[in-house]
Structure formats: C-alpha cells, structure tokens
Design goal:
The chain is mainly alpha-helical. The chain folds into 2 domains: about 45 residues, no CATH class; about 100 residues, Arc Repressor Mutant, subunit A (Orthogonal Bundle), CATH 1.10.10. The protein contains 8 helices and 3 strands. The protein has a 3-stranded antiparallel beta sheet. A hairpin with a 5-residue loop joins strand 2 and strand 3. Helix 3 crosses helix 4 and helix 4 packs across helix 7. The longest helix has 19 residues. The protein is globular and about 80 Å long.
Length: about 180
C-alpha cells in the first residue's frame, strides 16, 4: 500500500514538472487529452473529448491524436452529406490544425487536401451547416465549429448517437407566435 503511494507521488511530481514547462493553454489541452484517453471525468466536469459510449478505440475520436490526415479522419467519421462533411472538416481544423475560426475557402482547401469530391457550392454548404447549427459565426466574418457540431462529429460514425447529440442540445431560434386578430 505504501509503495503505491510512493509511485503516485513520483508520478504527480513528474507530471507537475512537465506541466511547468508548457503554457496554460497547452496544460489544458494535455489535461483534456489525458482525461479522455483514460476516460476520467474529474472535478472540472466532463470532458468534451470523451470517447462516446460503446467505443473502445480512443483513436477514433481522440482529439489529442494529431497523426491522422484529413483523408483518414473523414474515412473514420463517414460523413454522408455536405453539411456533415463541413462539420467534420471544421472539427479537423480546430483540433488537428489548431485553427478555431475559418473561412469557407479554408474548408474548401481542406476538402481538396482530404481528396473528397468538390462541393458543388461551398458557400451554400457552409451556410447550410450554419443553419443546422453545426457551425456558428465567429469574429470578423469567420465561422467556427459549434459545441453541438463538435459533439456530433465526436459521435460519428455512430449515426444514432450523432443524431441524439444534435437533438439533445438546447438553443436555437424559436418561432414567434402571432396573435390572431378578430
């Protein structure tokens, strides 16, 4: 029992030493990645990078793995529509290229790099992804992946789990009720 405590102390000391060498953002990314890898939900709340239920291979949705090419990533996620492909490409930009905000041209360029069929109209595909709440407006005319879109992509290729990720999110615009004049 005492030996386990010594091992834990050594591990903690090594982790703190390594964390001291990187900036705050890197610490957060590393901590989220380690939490996701070991399926740990700590005091700071659940990680958005958790492996979806039923998955045992963390590489499929593990955002800390930056070895996947855009082509491999899309093959893993299996998007079926242009809107889903836009969401997957936005996710790839955010998590594999550290580019949280993007323009339509960035999505088109990454789509070509991933050796995918060209969008018939990339601006329409991005606009439709925004209407579907997969992506949202960012600063200065840029776009970014929404939290809802992120959960959707993390859930792929499990279609049922992905649909429930989109359905379970709150928000969106509500239709106004008009009063009838009599």
């Amino acid at each position: 029992m005492k030996e386990a405590a010594v091992d834990e102390t050594k591990a903690l000391h090594e982790i703190i030493s390594l964390f001291a060498a990187v900036d705050d953002d890197a610490r957060r990314r590393i901590l989220r990645a380690v939490s996701a890898f070991f399926d740990i939900q700590g005091a700071s709340g659940p990680s958005i990078f958790n492996v979806p239920p039923g998955r045992t291979d963390p590489k499929v949705s593990f955002s800390g793995d930056r070895t996947s090419t855009p082509k491999e990533f899309l093959l893993q996620k299996q998007p079926r529509t242009d809107i889903e492909r836009v969401a997957c490409l936005a996710y790839y930009l955010a998590h594999f290229r550290s580019q949280d905000q993007f323009k339509t041209a960035d999505i088109s360029k990454l789509n070509t790099e991933a050796a995918q069929v060209k969008f018939s109209n990339a601006a329409d595909s991005v606009s439709n992804a925004q209407k579907g709440r997969y992506i949202i407006a960012g600063a200065r005319g840029m776009k970014q992946l929404s939290a809802q879109g992120e959960q959707f992509v993390l859930s792929l290729p499990d279609r049922d789990l992905a649909r429930s990720a989109m359905a379970n999110q709150l928000g969106g615009r509500r239709k106004r009720k008009t009063k009838r004049r009599t």
